[in-house]
Model the fold of this input.
Amino acid sequence: PEKQREGVVEVLPDGVKIVIPAVLLIEHIVVTRESLTRKHLASHLLGLIFHRIVRSDGVVDEITALGTYYYLHGIDGGKKVAIIAENSYEWIVAYFSTLLGRNISVPMDLKLSDEELVSQLVRCGCDALVYTDKTAHVVDSVKADANNPVKEFFRVGDFKEYKAEGRKAIADGDRRCIDAEVGPDDLACIVYTSGTTGLSKGVMLTHFNVTSDVIASDSVQTGKQAIGFLPLNHTFCWVGAMFSGYLLAEWGHICDSLKDIQHDMQTYHPQNFCAVPLVVDTIYDKIWRTAKRTG
Done:
């Protein structure tokens, strides 16, 4: 951590020297990658490609435009923004827009019941909710709850209009989101535990908590192409794919489902793969079954 704060972070995986950009804030991850990708690649999605091409020089613009839209609607620093949505480019933009604007992200598991999601939203005191058409039922449930704290609801399908409004505000001189000051010890995210032994608990993570893990994760990666499988609300996905991949990997890909992993690996030839043990065991078993069947 001290070396990270000093801005000197070097690793030697397999005898190859790789200098990892020093970061203290999640904002540094975005800005660093933005400057790097302009030099050699035209297709990036915060370091991850999600079945579409996104020009790298538009990433920060997308983030600040949506973040400014948040500010126009009262999500103006220190507010909690929940995300209940499937993996997508928009999920990542919504996440970074929250953090870079000095708001607090609360990523949630869309597979949970409405009852549990509403409980987390209420106990956390969320001010806003990002949702998709697939998770719109949660909006109805939270609005029906007498203790509903959510004041703003942002539909992913309307992001294009939101960003257009944000860009106009920026052009008119609104720099509140862009100029928001964020410190390493500021709260970045509230992540809920699985609640297997009782009521789920909200874990508070600062910007430095997250970036410290990112630096540690980068030390065991190759710096080449990566593939991410876990849901984006999963903290291991942030550290092992979304953040660290964004800093270090040349490019990446987010896999949609377990059944697509083999095809995606054959297509993208990743050198870095982030997944829980069960997924790795499943892939390993499938390889041996195929080998035995084909001889």
